[in-house]
Amino acid sequence: MAAKKKTSKKAKKAGPAEFIISKSRTKAAVTECNVSSEFYEALDNRVREIIAEAEQRTLGNGRKTLKPVDL
Fold first, then answer.
1. Pairing with 28, which of 35, 37, 53, 59 sits 20 to 30 Å away (CA)?
2. How far, CA to CA in Å, does 38 sit from each of 5, 33, 45, 65?
3. Nearest-CA neighbor of 38 among 25, 52, 19, 53?
4. Could you give the dihedral angle defined by the CA atoms of residues 56, 29, 44 and 50, in that order, rounded to the nearest 10 degrees?
């Protein structure tokens, strides 16, 4: 019997379809409304934009560490 190939964690995480945000935690944070399936993608896109803006501010200030002030 042939041994199973191990897949690396990087191989599993590859691809743009993965969210930064957690769907279950997002849904849990919403107390009085339902969450549409399209909301998660829009939220994830906005979070990516915020991170990119914070990264540019960090680099513009000559640092390599993101800080709360960069938000």
1. 53
2. 36, 14, 11, 32
3. 19
4. -10
Q: What integer pLDDT is reported at residue 28 of this predicted model?
A: 96
Measured in residues, the chain has a length of 71
- Long-range pairs, 62-70, Cβ under 8 A, ≥24: none
pLDDT tens-digit series, residues 32-67:
999 999 999 999 999 999 999 999 999 999 999 999
Say how far apart CA 52 and CA 66 lie, in whole Å.
10
Q: Distance (Å, rounded) from C-alpha 42 to C-alpha 32?
A: 19
Answer whether residue 13 shows pLDDT above 90: no
Please, what is the Cα angle at 37 between 20 and 14, to 5 degrees?
35
